[in-house]
Amino acid sequence: MDITFWGVRGSTPCFSRDKVHFGTNTSCLEMLEQGGERLIFDSGTGIVALGDHLERQGFPHCDVLHLFYSHFHWDHIQGLPFFKPVYRKGTKIVIYGRPSVETVLTSQLVPPFCPIPMEAVGSELQFVTMKAPVTLGPFVVTPFPLNHPQGSNGYVVETENRKAVYATDTEPDGGPMDRVLREHSRAADVLIMDSNNGMEEAERRRGWGHSTWRDCISVARDAGARTLVLNHHDAFQNDDAVREKEALARREFPDVFCAYEGLTLAV
């Protein structure tokens, strides 16, 4: 599978010149199988660039798109009204998430929050409350709970011989969900994990539902993950701060790097 990062920031888009290397858009991740199955995880502002990319390519493999939500905080949903396939006739978008996924997302397209009415949506939208694994072509996608205010889902994505884990917005705190995260990350080829908090910020942000780079390394080591990708960078961390995080992490884990917009991994 190919994994492409379209948005890697947390909390809010952060447009400024000192953040352009790693990117300024909020969470959006794409997984694409060679035969054409396209999975999208979260629709932060990064999904807008994905929509532009698909339009330039002539909307390949866009008859059915599968969009998975970790949770419904603004930075993970705010790009959906500006995702071009939403308005494309002939596209079906199957949207998976926690309970109330349909109510939460359709309520974005109503006054006074958005001038675009639901009637303008040309695609077919189908909503699925994610309770169990789903099989989509070669992919098996399994949800699991993460420790985050109001709840969040992580996802295990497996093919016949590859395993990727998307674990954004989670805070290891010594509780039972730490074990759940490690169990689902066991022997992952790639673990993509929230590294929002700097080490100096972790204590005063306790309970916010985010991890440090050192938390990520602990999970990756315990789970035996091969590659660790630090994701969901704090909106106030400039490129130098993210590079420093990456350098510190590399001293302690053999295969780790920070996600940046436009990065594609072949897993």
Number of helices: 6
Task: Kindly identify the CATH topology.
Answer: Metallo-beta-lactamase, Chain A
Question: Given this structure, which CATH class is correct?
Answer: Alpha Beta
What separation lies between the terminal Cα atoms? 5 Å
CATH architecture: 4-Layer Sandwich
Largest sheet: 7 strands, mixed
Percentage of helical residues? 10-25%
Walk me through the structure.
The protein is of the alpha/beta class. The chain has a single domain (2-13, 20-266), classed as Ribonuclease Z/Hydroxyacylglutathione hydrolase-like (Metallo-beta-lactamase, Chain A, 4-Layer Sandwich), CATH 3.60.15.10. It is built from six helices and 14 strands. It has helices spanning 46-56, 74-77, 101-106, 176-184, 213-223, 239-250; strands at 2-7, 28-32, 38-41, 64-68, 92-97, 124-129, 134-136, 139-146, 152-158, 163-167, 190-194, 227-231, 256-258, 264-266. The strands form two sheets. It has a seven-stranded mixed β-sheet with strand order 6-5-4-3-2-1-14. The protein has a seven-stranded mixed β-sheet with strand order 7-8-9-10-11-12-13, covered by helices on one side. Helix 2 links the parallel strand 4 (64-68) and strand 5 (92-97). Helix 4 packs across helix 5. The protein is globular and about 50 Å long. The model has no long low-confidence stretch (mean pLDDT 94).
Blueprint of the fold:
Blueprint: E1 2-7, E2 28-32, E3 38-41, H1 46-56, E4 64-68, H2 74-77, E5 92-97, H3 101-106, E6 124-129, E7 134-136, E8 139-146, E9 152-158, E10 163-167, H4 176-184, E11 190-194, H5 213-223, E12 227-231, H6 239-250, E13 256-258, E14 264-266
Parallel strand pairs: 3-4, 4-5, 5-6, 10-11, 11-12, 12-13
Antiparallel strand pairs: 1-2, 1-14, 2-3, 7-8, 8-9, 9-10
Helix pairs in contact: 4-5
